[in-house]
């Protein structure tokens, strides 16, 4: 059996508007090229339909959410091969960032390097009390993606990003919550249930409103001139006030 054949993204059946995506590449769910492409394709496929579900992203087993980039695979790369790999990983981060529906991450063990970068593009991150987070790239002669570095800095601030990225020391789930990487720490046996409940609650919100809010959060709207802010506000208003689900939510609220 080849390494590529061991790289899998299991997509659960949709239940209550939620799909669970599980990274399954034993023993540590490391990000091979194959796994990166499979996860990107799964996210793009789920996002493409008119009734896109909410997604819970997790890892198989209880020891690793994701061990980051596959160092055994990368050791044979030349510079151009690494550029191709990082191009693929950048595309994965973009797919996570632009996913229009709720995206919840359930970190069930070690969350390493690229695994943290992926988690930080989720709308909410729940972590097992046994989870640990580390950026070891500085010790392994590797670099995170610039898009990931920017996201780390946006979430934890400049000083926190320097400690994580330049220091290479691991932090536990409680420390990750204090830094803002994790929203809630839960017991290992309750992780997937709690994350799925959060995704179900978010999936019940009007899709058009949710998507518009996510898009606005991606953009530096504070730097826009007043005219552009008004144009986007007006366009969003037309979309949402013509959307049946949003109209039903308004009517229920006024109920």
3D structure, described in words:
The chain is of the alpha/beta class. Helices cover 49% and strands 16% of the residues. It has ten helices and ten strands. It has helices spanning 33-48, 71-74, 79-97, 114-119, 146-167, 173-179, 191-203, 207-218, 226-241, 244-254; strands spanning 8-11, 18-24, 54-59, 64-66, 103-107, 110-112, 124-128, 132-134, 171-172, 184-186. It has a six-stranded mixed sheet, sandwiched between helices. Strands 4-6-8-9 form a four-stranded mixed sheet. Strand 2, helix 1 (33-48) and strand 3 (54-59) form a beta-alpha-beta unit. Helix 1 runs parallel beside helix 3. It is globular, with a radius of gyration of 19 Å.
- Which runs of at least 5 residues are low in confidence (pLDDT < 50)? 1-5
Order of helices and strands: EEHEEHHEEHEEHEHEHHHH
Computed Rg: 19 Å
Biggest sheet, spatial arrangement of strands:
1-2-3-5-7-10
> Percent of residues in helical segments?
40-55%
Strand content: 15-25%
Could you give a short description of this structure?
With 255 residues, this protein is of the alpha/beta class. Helices cover 49% and strands 16% of the residues. Helix 1 runs parallel beside helix 3 (79-97).
């Amino acid at each position: 059996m080849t390494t590529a054949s061991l790289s899998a993204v299991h997509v659960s059946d949709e239940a209550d508007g939620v799909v669970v995506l599980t990274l399954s590449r034993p023993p540590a769910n490391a990000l091979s090229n194959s796994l990166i492409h499979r996860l990107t394709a799964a996210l793009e496929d789920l996002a493409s339909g008119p009734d896109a579900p909410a997604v819970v992203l997790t890892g198989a087993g209880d020891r690793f959410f994701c061990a980051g980039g596959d160092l055994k695979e990368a050791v044979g790369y030349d510079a151009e091969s690494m550029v191709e790999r990082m191009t693929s990983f950048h595309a994965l981060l973009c797919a996570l960032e632009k996913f229009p529906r709720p995206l919840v991450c359930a970190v069930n063990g070690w969350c390493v390097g690229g695994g943290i970068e992926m988690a930080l593009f989720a709308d909410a991150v729940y972590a097992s009390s046994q989870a640990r987070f580390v950026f070891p790239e500085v010790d392994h002669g590797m670099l995170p993606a610039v898009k990931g570095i920017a996201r780390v800095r946006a979430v934890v601030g400049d000083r926190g990003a320097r400690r994580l990225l330049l220091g290479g020391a691991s932090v536990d789930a409680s420390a990750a919550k204090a830094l803002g990487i994790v929203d809630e720490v839960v017991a290992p046996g309750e992780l997937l249930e709690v994350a799925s409940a959060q995704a179900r609650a978010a999936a019940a919100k009007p899709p058009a409103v949710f998507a518009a809010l996510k898009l606005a959060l991606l953009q530096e709207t504070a730097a826009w001139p007043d005219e552009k802010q008004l144009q986007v506000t007006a366009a969003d208003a037309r979309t949402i006030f013509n959307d049946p689900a949003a109209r039903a939510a308004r009517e229920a609220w006024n109920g």
